[in-house]
Design goal:
29% of the residues lie in helices and 32% in strands. It starts with 6 loop residues before the first helix and ends in a 5-residue tail after the last strand.
Length: 334
């Protein structure tokens, strides 16, 4: 090794397989001279090998990168007379060498990561079984998902639209965002809204949409209709024809209003009083013959619509909505 050659330069040549026989012997003698030299060589070789592996991602000038190792460091010259071990590296020189290559490695890793990875947006699925459950979506939209229903949606809405998939039935109270329409895909149809509340029933290919507030676009293939408050649209299985009509009563479902009850032989008059108070919804009996009907039933976090349906089915009652009041009528109980 000549007088102008430092151990830094010699190690660089050695790791690049560019040393002659005499220079290789000098490096070997330096390595075995002390444990500190051995550790320095091992650390340096580890970093050098990792720099080499990044060549698959980006063309690297190893000589230029290695030149950065000596930035700010004082060069040392070491003589190999009589095969004496090379003078120990200055600690600052060694530190700067490792740090500089780590900076290069990090930069190359960042470029590779940007080139070969894409942001992931997890898709979430929410399913109900034997009861309705309320769910708030990432954008603030609230969904009262009926029993045996499923919605699939992204963990974070991105892009120009907010899109989800529905199987079954749900009442939606959509967070208003005119710049990002909310779209429900179900049974080959699309329901598009900006901010409104409506019910979608799509357990089968026969899909029905009923609007409570706002405006909704309902479509299948090239057929579409605009629905407003108090209107509904229905599309029959295996057909593209959309049937639009008026409804006397828009959905009475209220988001954020699930209740639990445990009725044990309660008279129907007591039941409707409790339901009216809990749901803040007027409910009355259409005739006195049914007021003493006894109900034994439990409801766990259920919405009013489903509770009324169960009661009506139990006592064979007719349900009407008159001036925002739910009216139950029937022939009485045995």
């Amino acid at each position: 090794m000549n007088q102008d050659q430092t151990i830094d330069d010699l190690l660089a040549k050695y790791l690049a397989d560019e040393t002659d026989a005499q220079e290789s012997d000098t490096v070997s003698e330096w390595i075995i001279a002390s444990d500190e030299h051995k550790k320095t060589f091992d650390d340096t070789k580890f970093i050098w090998d990792n720099v080499a592996t990044t060549k698959d991602f980006q063309s690297v000038d190893v000589d230029a990168a290695w030149a950065k190792l000596n930035i700010g460091a004082k060069k040392e010259t070491t003589h190999a007379a009589n095969a004496a071990p090379v003078k120990k590296l200055n600690w600052l020189n060694n530190f700067l060498k490792i740090a500089a290559v780590l900076v290069v490695l990090f930069g190359l890793w960042y470029v590779a990561a940007r080139q070969f990875t894409t942001p992931q947006n997890d898709v979430l699925t929410f399913t109900t079984t034997d009861s309705a459950v309320e769910k708030t979506l990432p954008d603030g939209t609230k969904v009262l998902l009926s029993k045996n229903s499923t919605i699939t949606f992204p963990a974070t809405f991105s892009g120009n639209t907010r899109e989800i998939n529905l199987e079954g039935e749900g009442f939606f109270d959509v967070h208003h965002d005119a710049a990002h329409p909310f779209i429900i895909h179900t049974q080959g149809t699309d329901v598009k809204v900006l901010g409104t509340s409506f019910n979608v029933s799509a357990y089968t290919a026969q899909v029905q949409v009923v609007v409570k507030t706002g405006k909704v676009q309902f479509s299948k293939n090239n057929h579409r209709v605009i629905l407003e408050k108090g209107q509904k649209a229905e599309i029959l299985a295996n057909l593209d024809t959309i049937i639009k009509s008026e409804v006397a009563d828009a959905p009475s479902v209220k988001i954020n209003n699930l209740q639990s009850f445990d009725f044990d032989k309660k008279s129907l008059s007591e039941v409707v009083t409790m339901l009216s108070e809990k749901f803040n919804q007027p409910i009355m009996l259409g005739n006195a013959k049914i007021k003493n009907c006894k109900l034994t039933a439990s409801f766990e976090q259920e919405n009013l619509e489903n509770i009324i349906s169960v009661i009506a089915e139990t006592f064979n009652l007719e349900v009407k909505n008159e001036n925002n009041t739910i009216v139950l009528s029937g022939e009485g109980c045995e």
